[in-house]
Amino acid sequence: xxxxxxxxxxxxxxxxxxxxxxxxxxxxxxxxxxxxxxxxxxxxxxxxxxxxxxxxxxxxxxxxxxxxxxxxxxxxxxxxxxxxxxxxxxxxxxxxxxxxxxxxxxxxxxxxxxxxxxxxxxxxxxxxxxxxxxxxxxxxxxxxxxxxxxxxxxxxxxxxxxxxxxxxxxxxxxxxxxxxxxxxxxxxxxxxxxxxxxxxxxxxxxxxxxxxxxxxxxxxxxxxxxxxxxxxxxxxxxxxxxxxxxxxxxxxxxxxxxxxx
Amino acid sequence: xxxxxxxxxxxxxxxxxxxxxxxxxxxxxxxxxxxxxxxxxxxxxxxxxxxxxxxxxxxxxxxxxxxxxxxxxxxxxxxxxxxxxxxxxxxxxxxxxxxxxxxxxxxxxxxxxxxxxxxxxxxxxxxxxxxxxxxxxxxxxxxxxxxxxxxxxxxxxxxxxxxxxxxxxxxxxxxxxxxxxxxxxxxxxxxxxxxxxxxxxxxxxxxxxxxxxxxxxxxxxxxxxxxxxxxxxxxxxxxxxxxxxxxxxxxxxxxxxxxxxxxxxxxxxxxxxxxxxxxxxxxxxxxxxxxxxxxxxxxxxxxxxxxxxxxxxxxxxxxxxxxxxxxxxxxxxxxxxxxxxxxxxxxxxxxxxxxxxxxxxxxxxxxxxxxxxxxxxxxxxxxxxxxxxxxxxxxxxxxxxxxxxxxxxxxxxxxxxxxxxxxxxxxxxxxxxxxxxxxxxxxxxxxxxxxxxxxxxxxxxxxxxxxxxxxxxxxxxxxxxxx
Lengths: 261, 483
Ligand SMILES: Nc1ncnc2c1ncn2[C@@H]1O[C@H](COP(=O)(O)OP(=O)(O)OP(=O)(O)O)[C@@H](O)[C@H]1O
Ligand SMILES: [Mg+2]
Prior knowledge:
heterodimer, A: alpha/beta, Rossmann fold, 12 strands, 35% helix, 27% strand, B: alpha/beta, 11-stranded mixed beta sheet, 10-stranded mixed beta sheet, 13 helices, binds adenosine-5'-triphosphate, binds magnesium ion, SUF_FeS_clus_asmbl_SufBD_sf (chain B), SufBD_N (chain B), SUF_FeS_clus_asmbl_SufB (chain B), Fe-S cluster assembly protein SufB (chain B), ATP-binding (chain A)
């Protein structure tokens, strides 16, 4: 489904991704872990098409297509969804309006009839219930004044509504209380299906108790330096990032700090 | 007459004789370019106006000759040659249409393109339309139905003929000819416009609407609108304006006067999308308008709502004089300037009565190389015990070559006055666009969504159909502002 080869990206002349390889197949769940500033959010935003990052080399193929050549909204319409580490506030635009516009843009692209106001409300209210959001959030401005946890729930709500084929969750679990964490995990698990894939970026192996990954990768200094199964996450939790290969390049935190924000 | 800038041109103009005499002028459908007492006499004669009105025009003209064009607005444009303008132009017609069937089908087609619902659709929609095509009002619908309520809604020229006493009583009482350069010019040469009279105690049963359209080449438009709501009366009036593409800049200097007596309410809404000129600022309308409401009676209420997306240059300050005790004035505005448009708008709230209250809500959007200036004046006179004003000015910038300026002025001469001012400036961020586009929206949709959100508080004040139109307009006007 997604094939990233030797991807290099920079911002303002600073190299961040330095030759990253990753393959994601339909039905798989990949977890990406790694120290602060290692390039996890950069990777997710480059995949989503943010042009503040410059792609300096490598390729990304999405269902045989050149993903990097697609405009941002085309990637979204093709089913790529990014749950933002820092969801953006849009004052003046109601959440309901925003969600409906997004859902309909994507439905239209998929050849489905657009939701009218009633269909949409029925659908969105059901999903809000599932992620534990009160209805009032429909009528507030997008993310404006939402608490950290509320913003993250709103991301999960959008993911559920847009039914992406590949969802990238960038630290959606950070700053969540344990109940909210279960809500997020639940949302993700409901989405899991043989034709969908997920990339879960996290600092905490705890999330992976709920969302069991098929693969775990460690991103460090702009590269995937280690890949393994579920047990890699446990090992990281225990030992931190310091012990992982690529020695010399890594001046990561001491073991005890692993998983800290 | 010797000192004013335009006067110099006028002097030289007066030296030359009209090649065509007064009589020929009277037969022409379009007068030659230029302005003189003769031209004014012709305009007045063509309209069959009573003597008092001709005198009033001439008086205004003489005043105008002594005045200079204002230069203080934050707009920049070449001097206007007032002798290079045609002051009267009428569409060709024989005896004037008696009903819609007699109206030139070409004209109707134009209105249809503009979305003016003249036919049965209008009836269903409950909108009465007084359509102004260049200088002459060509069709007025619903007069009869309104007449049953004692409401007068017709072209200004018609009102001059049928109700000269009302014209004489109210014309120029809110905006006197001496008020400013463009008001004086308008008073001298105004061609047509709308007249509304709502008698005592009557609530107008439908929205009244006028669509203005500037069409003939080099034709200055000088509309005159007068709306009077007697004691306890109320009316909602919509003004829509569109102009086709033109290469030369066209001058538009209208005057609108609103008068509300005791307990009366007038709501005046405008959606203005005159041709703003192209990307480089070529062409487009110059719009210099004097709009003022007079809350003459106690507990009267005048409310201006406007959405301005057009004109190359806009210079416009709808104002309210809060004369009656407990009267209320509102100003809700969205002004957008894109490319090289310049908008200098704002409002004045003049508090004179006790416990008067005003609200100013201004939303300025600048995109491209547009510049948007808001000027607000709140004046609380010594007698305006307990007066209150709330002003909110928000600016939204799209891109980094545009500008927004706010100049609030508060003159409080009564210690009990309560005046509050809030202002914000925000820029549509790259992060907001990326977020919306990651959800499948195009950049255009994302911008128009954010802009509409920004304007929502004002759109809320517009009648339904107008709100929809305003949203579409903003979308169209913002085309090409990003990317
Ligand atoms: N717009 C930018 N301008 C300059 N530097 C940037 C920009 N965006 C990211 N960086 C830098 O790129 C590096 C990688 O950042 P990124 O956000 O991808 O890290 P991360 O792995 O997601 O970290 P965290 O775990 O803290 O979220 C950091 O050093 C960061 O400061
Ligand atoms: Mg990050």
